[in-house]
Structures are given as structure tokens and as C-alpha cells.
Amino acid sequence: MLIDTNVNLGPWPFSPLPDHTGPALAAHLAASGIRRAFVSHLGGVLLPDPMPANAKLFAQTRRTPALLPVPVLNPALATWREQLDICRAAAPIRAVKIFPNFHNYRLSSRRLDDFMAALAAAKLKLLLNVRLEDERHKYFALRIKGVPVADLAAFLQRFPSHHVLLTGAYKPEVEKLAAVHRNFSADIAFCETFKTLEFMLPKVPARQLMLGTCTPLLSTRGEVGKLTFAQIPARARTLIGSENARRFFDL
Amino acid sequence: MRIIDVHTHPVLDHKGGTPAEVKKLIAHGRRHGIVHMVALGDVLVYGATPNAAQLRAINDENAMVARLHPDYFTAFVYLNPRLGERATMAEAERCAALPGFRGIKLEIANNASHSCMRHAAKAARTFNFTILQHSWSTTNIKDRIHQSDPVDTALFARRNPDVKVIMAHLTGIGFRGVLEAKPLPNLYVDTSGGWPEEGLVEYAVEHLGPDRLLYGSDLPVRENAITIGRILGAQLSAVERQKILFGNTARLLNLKLN
Ligand SMILES: [Zn+2]
Q1: Contact B198 A136 (CB under 8 A)
Q2: Potential cystine with A189: which of A150, A151, A214, B210 (Cβ 3.0-4.6 Å)?
Q3: Could you tell me which chain B residue has the CA closest to the CA of A196?
């Protein structure tokens, strides 16, 4: 049984992707062996205020136990604290997700001090999205780059007592961070080379990697194949496929 | 499921060329159901615009791979049309005489709309070769001197309707590239390039039909489990899937595989 840490509901305006309902998304994931998934709503990435998208997320995941909602918050908005409370009241959430590059703030922002403290107080994990798309293929007018790896490194250093899950980082970025930092995990959605995991594991401990497919922007079956075909120790496969997520999210 | 991978670089950056490494690659391929690979050569090892001697060295190495395992590898001759007609034809002729060569690989020596491409077209006609042209949308990456936008590769195919052309990198050419290829029956598209962006494979089949899309991985730059899983996970019929993964390339290159 696999746990997917990087899944989305909702349409994406730059690509004709399926706009799944909750149950349809769960069935789509199950066809690739994924039994539980941490899901955000793509509307939260582009709307000026992510809350309408979070409301849709909660509505669509409420009756689908395989889908665990991860609301999107924007710490640059004046009301993030109030919005965090609304999200916690709406569903038993285990994490929130941030998109610093889409929401136009730097990770070095002082606002993050209060934000991280609030997450710790609420016993919530942070998912930090590095990218959603290959920068080369973005819509021509959407000039948004991935979160710089130097910013991620400084962020991890600044919050040593937090363990953060990075989603959408490239393989060289994960390897660079793993050489120095232990207080993060990374999903493998945007890590790819020949025999990805065989080449990654000597540089990144298996306990720091989690399955993430970036469904529906990337092919679920293709992304899962990266793990299921990998010729790696059974223990590493279990850690990456489910155990690390189980521990991180306290399932 | 039997698979032909139309876009591979068994030797890349001087690595992978020993007989033991080639054997290992075949074992890897068979594990994924790949029964045959098209070897395109170590194309960027001497930069974007290799000279004649560098082309010969790359093609000799590729010929060695095909000679060692003729049942498993078909080779494409790597050319730089900017070297002119005489050099282009001479290298094509030299490789056409070697076993296993069935096509021409063009990378980023020049844009596909450049007039020097007539030499590549002449070589393709003379030796009955299919041309595989590296292509990528230049909307964001620029550098159109070297990079061929799908518009450029489509223009080359339109100028040479009697030459069969593979526009490489479905993910790199994107939705716009599929539409460029749509009206040109001599233009094929391989499925390699970038992360497995959802929806593109189905879109390509919708617009090109199921007969002009060819499975390609671009190994060892990318991972076969992902590039194959993307086709297997796409909303396609079993017949369409078989054509993309095997039938179309077998027919295009006239491969007789047991
Ligand atoms: Zn290639």
C-alpha cells in the first residue's frame, strides 16, 4: 500500500487536466496502488486568497477517507492565523502547504517566525512546494521560477526544530540539501534520471524521501513506476512508499 | 507488452560504451519489456557543433553498440549539416555501409529550418534513412539558433514530404507542437522529454491519430519506468498503446523483430 504526499484536486488553467471529484481522484490513485494521499486544491495556488479553494478541498475530501486534506495557506496575507483556525475547525488536518513563489514572498520573510510557531503550537506539519511545473513548459506569461535552493537551505537552518516536507524539488536540489540538512524530507515527483532512486539513495537517506506524484499534473502511473521498478533494498522501498509518510503525518 | 524505445543514448558523456555496460543496459531494457532500442549516439559530448572527426568518433562508438547486439540495437548516424553537403553525405554513406544503421540523428548544430538542412534531407533520400530531429518549444528556452522549435521541425518536414521525420520530445514540444505536426503525414513524434506531464499523450493521439506517436525514453537522461508508465497509464485503447510502444516504430523503421 502506497501513500502519496503530493496530490491535487481542482483544475489547472494552463493544461487540460481531468478535474476529478474526490471519489474519482481516489479511484484514479488506487489504480496505481495508492491507498492514501495528501491532497491540496490547485485553486489555492492562484487565487488571491486560498480559502475558497480550501473550502472546496474540504467538501470534496470529506466523504473520501483515502484523501487527507492539506489546505493551502499564504503567510503573506493579514488573516493567515484566522484562516488556519478555520481550516482546523473544518477538518482534522495534519499539515498545511505553502507556495512561496506563487504567493510572492521570500522564505526569509520575518512573517514566517510567527507562522512556524503557530504550526508547532497546533502540531501541524509544513509542506513547502518548490515547483508545480517544469519551468521550460510554463505558460509563457507565467514567469514564476522554483523556490531557490539557497532559500530552502537558509529556511531549514533557521527552523532546526521543524521537519519540513519539500514537494516538487529536483533531484540535484534534494541532494544538495541532504548533504547538509536532516530536518527535511522531499517527495520524489520531480526527481528523475536513469534509475532515479538507485542513484539517489547513496546521496539521500531513504528516510528523507517520500512518494509524491504531483497528480494530476504528472502521470500517476509513471511516477509510481519510479518507485515500484527501482532495484533498491525492500526496506528503502517501504520507507519511501509509505512508512516515512506514516511517521511524518502521524497516521 | 513488447516495447521498442526509439530514443536512446547507450553511450552518453563517454559512459556506457564497454561491452559489459552495453550488456547491462540490455538487461535493464528487457526488465522493462523493451525488446529493441534505437541508439542515437553520444550527441553532445563534443558540444553543439561537432566537426567531421568528432562525428566519426561518435558514430563509430554507436556502430560498435549495434554491431555487438544487432538484434537489440538499431543505430542512427549523427550528422552536423553545417559541415556542408560533401561532409554530410560522406559520413552518411560511411555509416549506411555499416550494419544496423537506419536513420539520421540531428541535434542542436543548427535550427531545423536552416537551409543547410537540405544536405540532411538529401542523405535521408539517398540512403532511405528516417531523420530524428531534437525539438523543443523555444517559447521559454529561447536560443533558436541551435534549438528547433516545433514550428521549425514541421517546416523541414513540410519542405521534404518524401522524407520521414521524427520530431523528438513530445513533452518538450507540448500541445502547440502536436498541432504543428498534425497536418504532416511524414512527421512523427516521440514521447520523450521532461517530466511525464499528464494529458499530452492522449492529446497527441487525438490530433495525430494512433499511428504517428512513437515511444521514446531519452535514456539515460530519463527513467524508463516513468516514460513507459506514462503510456500505460494514459486513457488509450490496448491497440493504441501497442502501436505507440511497438508497432509504429517497427513499421516506420521496417524492423523485423522475432
Ligand atoms: Zn536525446
Answers
A1: no
A2: A214
A3: B223
Three-class SS of chain A: CEEEEEEEECCECCECCCCCCHHHHHHHHHCCCEEEEEEEECHHHHCCCCHHHHHHHHHHHCCCCCEEECCECCCCCCCHHHHHHHHHHHCCCCEEEECCCCCCCCCCCCHHHHHHHHHHHCCCEEEEECCCCCHHHCCCCCCCCCCCHHHHHHHHHHCCCCCEEEECCCHHHHHHHHCCCCCEEEECCCCCCCCHHHHHCCCCCHHHEECCCCECCECHHHHHHHHHCCCCCHHHHHHHHHHHHHHHCCC
Contact A193 B228 (CB under 8 A): no
Q: Which of A137, A138, A170, A213 to mutate to test the interface with B (most CBs of B within 10 A)?
A: A137
Peptide bond into A160 cis (omega under 30): no
Write down the mean pLDDT value for chain A.
Answer: 97
In angstroms, the separation between the Cα of residue B175 and the nearest Cα of chain A is 9
Summary count for chain B: helices (H), strands (E): 11, 8
Domain ranges of chain B: 3-252
A19 touching B (Cβ < 8 Å)? no
- List CB contacts (< 8 A) between B195 and chain A: 134, 189-190, 192, 218
- The CATH fold of domain B3-252: TIM Barrel (3.20.20)
pTM: 0.96
Domain ranges within chain A, ordered by starting residue: 2-249
pLDDT of residue B123: 98
- Does domain A2-249 correspond to CATH entry 3.20.20.140? yes
Q: Which of B194, B199, B230 sits opposite A15 (nearest CB)?
A: B199
Smallest Cβ–Cβ distance between A226 and the set B203, B220, B226 belongs to: B226
The set of cell numbers assigned to A139 is: 505558460
pLDDT (tens digit per residue) in A50-80: 999 999 999 999 999 999 999 999 999 999 9
Place of cell 523543443: B136
